[in-house]
Amino acid sequence: MAHQDHLYILKKGTTYWNQWRQANPHIKPDLSQADLRGADLKQINFSQVNLRFANLISATLNNAILKGANLSLASLHSASLQMADLSGADLSAADLRETDLRQANLSFANLTAADLTRADIRDANVTNANFDGTILENVRRHKGLRNFFRRDD
């Protein structure tokens, strides 16, 4: 369950949140199960944040920093994560259907059993990402990634 103090800080806005994160680098915020659907979280620093089971449906996270974040079982359906840094993030079993991940950094991310149906990963960095058991139906991707996936959807 999300830590209420962390939710309170987040509700003060991205600038306040990012300043708080910079002043408190030792704190690993817990926003697990938080309802953030439709939230405007552009350029937010969510690195190392626990967002397990979070509802981020239709949220805007463009240019967000999510390095090492726990997004396992999170709902990111129709979210926008353009140019977001998800390197090393845990996205296992996350709902990423119709998510915009163009130019996102997914290097070393764990996408085991995630659902990327109709997601857009054009120009995304997927170096060393784990796609074991990932649903990749109708994924939009750069032609250079055609051979990266085991099957050609």
TrEMBL record:
Pfam families for this protein: Pentapeptide (PF00805)
InterPro entries xref list: 5peptide_repeat, Pentapeptide-BTB/POZ_domain
Protein name: Pentapeptide repeat-containing protein
Organism: Dictyobacter vulcani
